[in-house]
Each structure stands twice: as structure tokens, then as C-alpha cells.
Write a structure and sequence with these properties.
Length: 239
């Protein structure tokens, strides 16, 4: 198992693009994995190749960026009754979770990612989950990821390391991280090509990118970008 290789869970969104750039700065060989789970915002699957092509233009990253794996998990969408897999309005549920939560999604994603990493001899698995600015999904929490690392290592007799670069930072800091990794060119790539909107809207262009502007994912991305730009515009104090 290669200690200098990584597999990045890559959806085509802002967070996973930032994590992919983070991995490309740290590992000699990086592969990506995406999942078709019957999501209504399928446009994220369409933007993935464009984002990957854009990242290849950054100096030193093209030689590190390897195979992109796509996994068919449409059975998850058929099992789920959620706003991301069915045509229903986004709302809060009686259990306190939004109906955009897809039960088992990240657990399945990590399991399949580990299976691919096992086959490819990859040690490090990188995912963009976060429990700072997030929608309250329990499978995005640090405790869940730590437990999954233990289970996957025991169940596959391996020593995978799960990395969550965004776990303890908010959306403004995610924009800042992207800027530190790829300067304004990466910010522009994220704004123009990545997709976050739960409604799959690519008709409305905002300062922060494309989306409906009103769904929870758009609101998180927009508020983070507003704080990021406000901080960037604040002049440094004098001596």
C-alpha cells in the first residue's frame, strides 16, 4: 500500500474540489472517485470532468492526477425518500434533520472508496465532510469518520488514513484554503465550474458561482463567500 498516494471523494462541488487541490499539494499520486446515487442535482456529475481538466492546468498537478473512478450507487436513490433523490420540497423533518439528508450516503461512499483504494494500493482517503458550516448531517461528523476509519481498517485488514481537511473550518475558511492552494485561479475555477446547488440550477450566476441562491447548499456557499471577500478586502493594520 503506497504511503504517498491518495484517493479523493470528488463530487464536482466546492468542498471536494478544495480537498482535491489539498491532496494534490501533499501526495505524489492522487486519484478521484465519484458516485451516481440517483441525485436530482445530476449536473454535479457533468461538471466533474471540467473541474478535473481545470485542475490539470495548475503547475505540478497534472503529473500527480491519476485515474477518475465512477461508481453506480443508484440503488441508494431508489431506497431513499429525500429531497436530493425525490421530487419533494426541502423541509425539516420531525427528527430535527433536513430531508436533504440521505441516510447511509457517506457510509456507503467511504466503504466503496476504501474498496477502490484497497484494489489500487492507496493508503490515504480524502473527503470534504465538515461539521462546522453544515446542514447537521450525522454522517459528516468527525466521530463518524473516526469510527469508519476503525471499521474499514479492521474489516479490510488495512491501514487506511481518512483525511478531512474541512472538518473544523467554516465556508469562509474553505474559500481561504482554496486561495492559499491555487491563488485566484483556483477561486475562479471553483466559481465558474463547480456545482453545489441542491436544485441543480445552472441558469443563475452569482458572485460565488452558479445556483438557485435559496437552497441550503447555496446559502452556505454564498454566506461563506461573502465573509471571505469581506475579510480579503479588509486592509492589514499598519505598523
Amino acid at each position: 500500500m503506497s504511503a504517498d498516494s491518495a484517493l479523493v471523494l470528488f463530487s464536482g462541488g466546492q468542498d471536494s474540489t478544495t480537498c482535491l487541490a489539498w491532496a494534490l499539494e501533499r501526495f505524489a499520486h492522487v486519484e478521484t472517485i465519484g458516485f451516481d446515487y440517483g441525485q436530482g442535482h445530476r449536473v454535479e456529475l457533468e461538471v466533474r470532468p471540467r473541474v478535473i481538466a481545470g485542475l490539470r492546468s495548475f503547475e505540478g498537478w497534472d503529473s500527480r492526477l491519476g485515474e477518475d473512478h465512477m461508481v453506480d450507487l443508484t440503488v441508494l436513490g431508489k431506497l431513499s425518500q429525500t429531497a436530493l433523490t425525490q421530487d419533494v420540497a426541502i423541509a425539516m423533518q420531525a427528527n430535527g434533520l433536513p430531508n436533504t439528508f440521505v441516510p447511509g450516503r457517506n457510509i456507503l461512499f467511504m466503504t466503496f472508496a476504501a474498496a477502490v483504494a484497497y484494489r489500487c494500493g492507496i493508503k490515504h482517503i480524502v473527503t470534504g465532510v465538515c461539521e462546522t458550516d453544515f446542514s447537521g448531517y450525522p454522517d459528516c461528523r468527525d466521530d463518524t469518520m473516526k469510527a469508519l476509519q476503525v471499521v474499514l481498517n479492521l474489516g479490510m485488514e488495512s491501514r487506511f488514513v481518512i483525511h478531512t481537511p474541512l472538518m473544523w473550518i467554516d465556508k469562509a475558511q474553505t474559500w481561504e484554503l482554496a486561495q492559499s492552494l491555487g491563488q485566484e485561479a483556483l477561486i475562479e475555477l471553483i466559481r465558474e465550474e463547480t456545482h453545489t446547488c441542491y436544485k441543480g440550477d445552472r441558469t443563475h450566476r452569482h458572485d460565488w458561482g452558479w445556483g438557485c441562491g435559496t437552497c441550503p447548499a447555496c446559502e452556505l456557499r454564498a454566506s461563506g463567500f461573502e465573509r471571505f471577500t469581506a475579510h480579503s478586502a479588509t486592509p492589514e493594520p499598519g505598523p
